[in-house]
Write a structure and sequence with these properties.
Layout: H1 4-16, H2 19-25, H3 30-44, E1 49-51, E2 56-58, H4 60-88, E3 91-98, H5 107-117, E4 120-127, H6 130-139, E5 144-147, E6 156-164, E7 166-171, E8 193-196, H7 202-211, E9 219-223, H8 226-234, E10 240-243, E11 254-258, E12 267-274, H9 280-293
Parallel strand pairs: 3-4, 3-5, 8-9
Antiparallel strand pairs: 1-2, 5-12, 6-12, 7-10, 7-11
Helix pairs in contact: 1-2, 1-3, 1-4
């Protein structure tokens, strides 16, 4: 196998087409340079240079090998820098899970921040519900999740990224939309409800059940995605409790009304990660997030 010194010697001779000038450029004498080229040709199994007392020329094999030699040498020179950047967290790959609703609020600004702070870090995005993110974080398939509480504090650490209110999505022209005020709980008792799935959207299901007097008999559809809920509202299938960020969907035929029964901004979105974090890029990102939130 050839060495990087042999590659550097060959490149110098190929560019100078003169052993003496190449040896001077490499701060060495001509005889060891000639031996390097001979060893390289034996390793490659082809004559790379034609030389006589008057001139040096590249063979056809030498012309082809020159491009590859330059590429190999450039890679060798970049490799230590790349390794240092990855070890420091400035390069590498971050695998980020996000819920569909987080794509309407914090995901875009977060990706912009990562691009600004860590421009050489590649991002792999995966849209997953919170339960799927938790599993992927435990198995190491994800580095960071944008998910809803609660989390196992012994396994995961987290940062609150975003809070928002719950609002009521109703079809355009619905009688509740004509009231011009916050909607009281007792005004919802006869409304057909498009409800969150207790399995795939457990966070929103529990939040709504705790806050509003939802009657099981009023539930006409059970779905897991906010986009699906709002689309069903637009189709006049019922009303739905959704996070305020759903107003950004821009779906025609839907109005969003404030709810008197919703206190403050109960909908939370957290950045969560496994405490046994090993990805340097994630460690660096967490430092940036902590600085922002102080």
């Amino acid at each position: 196998m050839f060495t990087f010194d042999q590659l550097a010697g060959f490149i110098a001779v190929a560019e100078e087409l003169h052993f003496g000038r190449a040896a001077e450029r490499l701060n060495m004498t001509q005889p060891p340079l000639s031996r390097q080229i001979q060893k390289l040709e034996r390793s490659v199994g082809a004559e790379l240079l034609q030389r006589d007392n008057r001139k040096v020329q590249l063979t056809h094999a030498g012309v082809a090998f020159l491009d590859e030699a330059r590429r190999l040498l450039a890679l060798a020179e970049r490799a230590p820098l790349t390794a240092r950047r990855i070890a420091s967290g400035r390069s590498g790959l971050l695998r980020i899970g996000f819920t569909a609703a987080s794509g309407l609020s914090i995901l875009g600004p977060l990706l912009e921040e990562i691009a600004t702070r860590l421009p050489d870090v590649d991002i792999d995005l995966q849209e997953l519900v919170t339960g799927e993110q938790v599993q992927a974080l435990q198995t190491g398939e994800l580095d960071l999740g944008l998910a809803r509480p609660p989390f196992d504090g012994e396994v995961f650490d987290s940062h609150l990224l975003y809070r928002e209110s719950l609002v009521l999505a109703v079809p355009t022209g619905h009688p509740l939309a004509l009231l011009g005020r916050d909607i009281d709980n007792d005004e919802l008792k006869d409304e057909p409800i498009i409800m969150h799935s207790p399995l795939q959207a457990r966070y929103f299901y529990d939040l709504v059940i705790r806050t509003f007097p939802v009657q099981h008999g009023n539930v006409v559809h059970t779905v897991s995605q906010i986009l699906t809920m709002v689309s069903l509202v637009a189709a006049n299938r019922g009303v739905a409790f959704v996070p305020h960020s759903a107003t950004a969907l821009g779906i025609h035929g839907v109005e969003f009304l404030p709810l008197a029964g919703s206190k403050g901004e109960p909908v939370e979105l957290h950045a969560i990660w496994n405490r046994k974090v090993e990805n340097p890029a994630l460690g660096r990102l967490l430092t940036e997030l902590e600085y922002q939130m102080e």
